[in-house]
Amino acid sequence: FFVWMVVLTTEATIHQTMQSFLVRCGQWRKELPYPQASTVLVEGIPLPYRSDAKLREFFEQCFEPSTIKAAHVVKDTGKLIELHKEALLLQESLCKAEIAWAKNGQLPEFRPQMTKRFMGERCDAIENYTRDIAEHEQLIRKHRKEIIQASQQEVGGINTMNGFVTFANRREAELAVHLQYSNHSHEWKVSYAPEPEGVDWDDLRQNVGPRLDALRTSLGYGIVMALYVAFLPVCIATTNLAYMIDLGPLQHLWMAIAPSLSLTIFLSFLPTVMINTFDYFFILKSKTWCQLKLQNWYFWFQVFFVILVTAIGTNFFEFVTQVASEPPSLFLLLGRALPEATHFYMSYIILQCTTHAWGLIRSAQLGKFLAARAIFEEEEARDLAEPEDQDYFGIGSRSARATIVLLIGIIFSTLSPVVAVISAAFFFVARLVYGYLIVFAETRKPDLGGAFFVLQMQHLQVGIGIYCILMIGVLWVMAPNNYPAAIVAPSLFYTILRAKSFNEEFLWERLPFREIAFNAHILSTHDTQQVYVQPELHEGFDDDLDMDNMVHRRSSLVTNRQICGSLTAGGYLKGRG
Which helix (DSSP H) or strand (DSSP E) does residue 211 occupy? Predict the structure, then answer.
């Protein structure tokens, strides 16, 4: 009956929490500022409509022309971005040359020299970099003008298959998302636009057809699945190597934490591999969606190799094959293996607390800040030091790790109540650490309106299902008869039904249309003055290359008499990302 109490209490808490979440999510959507609230992302634009004018004309035929405020098709600006990067490298080199000369007292005989090519004549570095930057600035303006003219004069070509349409009011934008524009699923895919600063322009610039997209996606999933196969042997080999280390008086402590330590270290590198895979093989409309995908895959990886690792053993394929051929064997596998590993999970949760301490120290940001402060003003140095590593410390991997620890506390609480106590201590520390970091230390990240939280709730219900399977297996193996297992068995079906009702009952991804159509006065009227146009097509994108700005920055750098590192380019590209 204790199992039923855990299941009923957890499910009731999930549904009660979702009710509170719906109120907050609805308020967040009401307060979405313009233009995000009235802009839609259009993917799969057919070739005859791939221009700003044609895209606008199409939607003016679907809606009243007066309701369309702007339409922008994403352009292929790869060459323009390369010119910007080259100019930034030249600017960085110029900064270094200026500072090197200043260290020598700015004496004429010590002006930095350089060679343009191998075994070429030496020339004045400062004059050469200044001239090259000016030439790049002209090339950038010329190429931008050519891109804009080409996009206006032809349909297709430099115009890609993705774009944004901004409506004058939110009502039409909401209608646009729900309409069907084609009989083909890959054409005219209209969805809510992400925040302007969160748009992944690199992905949207790609003109990838449905077949190539499917091929790339399949390769991406194949690489992720290969991680499942390759991870376990490497982790086991590392654990065996750790057991060979002799720490003398501390050997017993080392033997207790070695398995958890090796697993924690390997899991810390996994988000980086997954993020790079998603960036290369998947086309995502914003970096925040990449974090959401990371959360989902990282969670399932930890389910197999943290929660179920003792049942899987040394052969992942053998485990999957056995469960697929004999599904009831899963109850016995979990019931026999997991109860003997509660000490492993205790040490694992304790080690996870070190991630809180590491995140609170923010050593990477501190190092970058101290290096940049020697060159730039304090506020600018702080901006250059942000954000934190979005692979491991991003919202996606953080959410997945927190869910796993919560599930460990729930799943093993019946077998060893101490696990629940340690899990509670973990979240107490997490509340203190992230309550400070998110509010006072870290920079704001683009939001999806609760998608990460909802995914956590869905993952939590998966964990409740694992808990039911485990307890059925434990009672089946250890009880003197089958009656206890029979009493617990219906809890698994109850969990499945509640998970199904969860996905059907809570419609959180959009506001009810009546709120938009008939209660427009409660919606936010705040205008951020942002536009859904690629940053490199703005004239303001050249501000960092403006010669007056550069002279002022170089003067500041020379005064500090420090060597300019790669922070200049890194900060510029980060700010534009």
Answer: helix 210-243
* Helix or strand holding residue 43 (H, E): strand 39-43
Joined together, the tokens standing for residue 153 give 């004069």
In a structure prediction context, what are the per-residue pLDDT tens digits for the chain, which is 577 residues long? 788 999 999 999 999 999 999 999 988 988 888 889 899 999 999 999 999 999 999 999 999 999 999 999 999 888 888 888 888 888 878 877 887 787 777 778 788 888 776 666 788 888 888 888 888 888 988 998 888 888 888 888 889 999 999 998 888 999 999 899 999 888 999 999 988 888 888 888 887 777 777 888 888 888 888 887 777 777 767 666 666 677 777 777 666 677 777 778 888 888 988 888 888 888 888 888 889 999 999 999 889 888 887 777 666 677 778 888 888 888 888 888 888 878 888 888 888 888 888 888 888 888 888 887 776 677 877 887 888 888 888 899 999 999 999 999 999 888 888 999 999 999 999 999 999 888 888 888 888 888 999 999 999 999 999 999 988 988 888 878 888 888 889 999 999 999 998 988 888 888 888 888 777 777 777 888 888 998 888 766 555 444 444 443 443 333 333 333 333 333 333 333 3
Helix (H) or strand (E) run with residue 72 in it: strand 68-75
Spatial separation of the C-alpha atoms in residues 368 and 177, rounded to whole Å: 43
Q: How close are the terminal C-alpha atoms of the chain, in Å?
A: 53
CA-CA distance, 100 to 120, in Å (whole number)? 22
Residues ≥6 apart with Cβ < 8 Å to 404: 299, 302, 303, 306, 307
> What is residue 226's three-state secondary structure?
helix
- Helix (H) or strand (E) run with residue 213 in it: helix 210-243
Residue with tokens 């895919």: 189
Q: Judge contact between 402 and 408, C-beta under 8 A.
A: no
Do 359 and 437 contact (CB within 8 A), yes or no? yes
SS (HEC) of 98-153:
HHHHHHCCCCHHHCCEEECCCCCCEEEHHHHHHHHHHHHHHHHHHHHHHHHHHHHH
- 508-511, Cβ contacts within 8 angstroms, sequence gap of 24 or more: 508/18, 508/21, 508/22, 508/25, 508/449, 508/450, 508/454, 509/449, 510/29, 510/174, 510/177, 510/192, 511/26, 511/29, 511/30, 511/174
257, with CB counted inside 10 A (0-12, 13-18, 19+), is middle
Contact 312, 305 (CB under 8 A): yes
> In Å, how far from its chain's centre is CA 435?
20
Q: What are the distances in angstroms from CA 428 to CA 72, 393, 423, 435?
A: 47, 18, 9, 11
Q: At what angle do helices 451-478 and 395-411 cross, to 10 degrees?
A: 30
CA angle, residues 383, 388, 394, in degrees to nearest 5? 135
> Which of 162, 126, 163, 136 has the alpha carbon at shortest distance from 82?
136
Q: What is the gyration radius of the CA atoms in the chain, in angstroms?
A: 28
